[in-house]
Structure formats: structure tokens, C-alpha cells
């Protein structure tokens, strides 16, 4: 039996008896073993892999590792497990494929994109647990941008299975989560009568929803997304371009910026 798979099985055994931190560490070791010493595309043997699970051993290990970071268990944080966090962060959606040369050919790149998408999801959840709405939105958008480069990952469609199913399911959940962040930004910014930009702190009563559904009262609200600066445009997003002159007004598109320019340039004087 290859070493990576053996470490994963040992991790599953620990998990089944409730020794979750030990299982988590074995998942990390299994991922490192496969990444550094084995074929990243090796698959679990036989036809026993469910259609709702990936066939690649590395992908299975990755899902379990990230599942601990995403769980409601407060033990799995960047501070408590820096090695595991650094491993996940190295696969953030904006990381270069050159940093992961072991993923060769179309199938290797496909697996790499799946790992980047799921890493983005886990990093978003970790940011959310810290109350960092802006970074949460950023991580979601980065992961969605990667998914957009590979259509089978970008939408849930009938008949999907294995890697496509897992990635598309998480992509849809991230898209829904980002939409909720945008809706909350729009509503809260509307309460104070302003568009509000990403990372702006608004002095409004707010109830923050935790990862396990609890509500925590707060007197401030940190905006997660930018509002388009053109009057009449209601779009919000993470990657809007700012006006190069004032650095304060954001636009969802070049068209909106051009349409708003005659009015906006007067604010520079």
C-alpha cells in the first residue's frame, strides 16, 4: 500500500473513534506525502468510490483536511495548526500553477484547480470565523474566478460525478454565500444612506451570524464588497476598479465609469 493512502486510512480510523485532532494531522501528513513523493493523480482502487466523491486519493485527503478547518469545531484555526494552514494557503486560488509543478497535463491541472477552489472555500470560512467579512468575500470571489476557467466546475448540472460533482457543489455554495454577503452590504449601507466601500466600517447596529447559526450583536458593520459609484447602478462586488484620481470611488465596469465621469470629475476639485 502506498504511504499516502496508508496515512489517510489511519486518519479515518482516528476520526471514527473521535480522535479528530490526530486524524487531522494524519490527513495533513498524507497530503504532504502524496504531493512530495507520489503520483498526485493516483486513484482509489476498484469501482467502490461513490459518484459523490472524487476518485483521486489526494482529492479525498484534501476534502477531509479542509473539512476540519471548515467545521464548527473551534480547535482548527491558523494559530493552532500553522503547518496545515500554510499547506492550504499555498493552494489559495491566486497561487501560480508554477508553484505546483507536480500537477502535469490536463488531468493534473484539473485536479489542481479543484484543490485551489476548495482551499479558497476553507480560507473564506476561516476568515468568516474571525469576523473578517471583506476577506471572506475576497476568497469566495477568487475561488469562483478559478471555477470560471473550467466549465464543469462552474455550475451544478445533472449527471456530474466525482471531481466535477464535488467542485461544482462547493462552487454553488460559495456563489450563494457571496450573494448573501452582497445582499447584507446593500441593506446595511442603505440604512445609512451611502454606497459604502469594501472594508469601510459603518456605525450601525448589527447582528453577526456565526458559523453554527448563533447571532452575536455588534455596534459596527464592516462592508465586504464595493458599491458601484455610478448613480442608478446597484451592483456590488469584490474586484471593482477604483478611480485612479481619488482612489475612493469604485466602478463595476469601464462603461459605468465613463458614464459617471462628467459628474464624478467635479468631486476632484
Automatic annotation (TrEMBL):
Sorted alphabetically, which keywords does the UniProt record give? Metal-binding, Zinc, Zinc-finger
User: Which residue numbers delimit the MYND-type domain?
Assistant: 225-269
NADP in keyword set: no
KW Metal-binding (keyword) present: yes
Gene3D superfamilies from the entry? Answer: 6.10.140.2220
Kindly give the InterPro entries that the UniProt entry links to this protein.
Znf_MYND
Membrane-crossing residue ranges in chain numbering = none
* MF GO annotations: zinc ion binding
Record's Pfam families?
zf-MYND
- Protein name as it appears in the record: MYND-type domain-containing protein
Organism, by scientific name, is: Mycena albidolilacea
Amino acid at each position: 500500500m502506498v504511504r499516502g493512502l496508508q496515512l489517510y486510512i489511519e486518519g479515518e480510523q482516528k476520526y471514527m473513534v473521535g480522535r479528530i485532532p490526530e486524524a487531522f494531522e494524519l490527513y495533513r501528513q498524507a497530503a504532504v506525502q502524496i504531493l512530495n513523493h507520489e503520483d498526485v493523480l493516483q486513484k482509489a482502487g476498484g469501482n467502490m468510490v461513490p459518484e459523490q466523491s472524487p476518485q483521486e486519493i489526494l482529492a479525498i485527503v484534501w476534502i477531509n483536511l479542509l473539512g476540519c478547518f471548515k467545521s464548527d469545531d473551534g480547535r482548527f484555526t491558523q494559530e493552532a495548526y500553522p503547518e496545515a494552514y500554510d499547506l492550504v494557503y499555498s493552494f489559495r486560488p491566486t497561487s501560480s500553477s508554477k508553484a505546483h509543478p507536480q500537477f502535469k497535463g490536463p488531468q493534473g491541472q484539473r485536479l489542481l484547480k479543484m484543490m485551489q477552489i476548495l482551499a479558497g472555500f476553507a480560507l473564506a470560512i476561516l476568515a468568516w470565523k474571525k469576523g473578517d467579512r471583506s476577506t471572506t468575500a475576497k476568497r469566495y470571489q477568487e475561488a469562483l474566478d478559478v471555477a470560471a476557467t473550467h466549465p464543469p466546475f462552474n455550475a451544478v448540472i445533472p449527471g456530474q460525478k466525482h471531481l466535477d460533482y464535488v467542485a461544482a457543489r462547493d462552487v454553488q455554495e460559495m456563489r450563494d454565500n457571496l450573494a448573501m454577503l452582497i445582499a447584507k452590504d446593500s441593506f446595511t449601507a442603505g440604512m445609512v444612506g451611502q454606497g459604502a466601500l469594501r472594508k469601510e466600517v459603518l456605525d450601525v447596529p448589527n447582528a453577526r451570524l456565526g458559523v453554527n447559526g448563533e447571532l452575536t450583536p455588534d455596534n459596527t458593520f464592516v462592508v465586504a464588497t464595493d458599491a458601484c459609484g455610478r448613480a442608478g447602478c446597484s451592483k456590488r462586488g469584490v474586484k471593482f476598479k477604483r478611480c485612479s484620481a481619488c482612489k475612493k470611488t469604485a466602478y463595476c465596469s469601464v462603461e459605468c465609469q465613463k458614464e459617471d465621469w462628467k459628474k464624478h470629475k467635479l468631486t476632484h476639485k
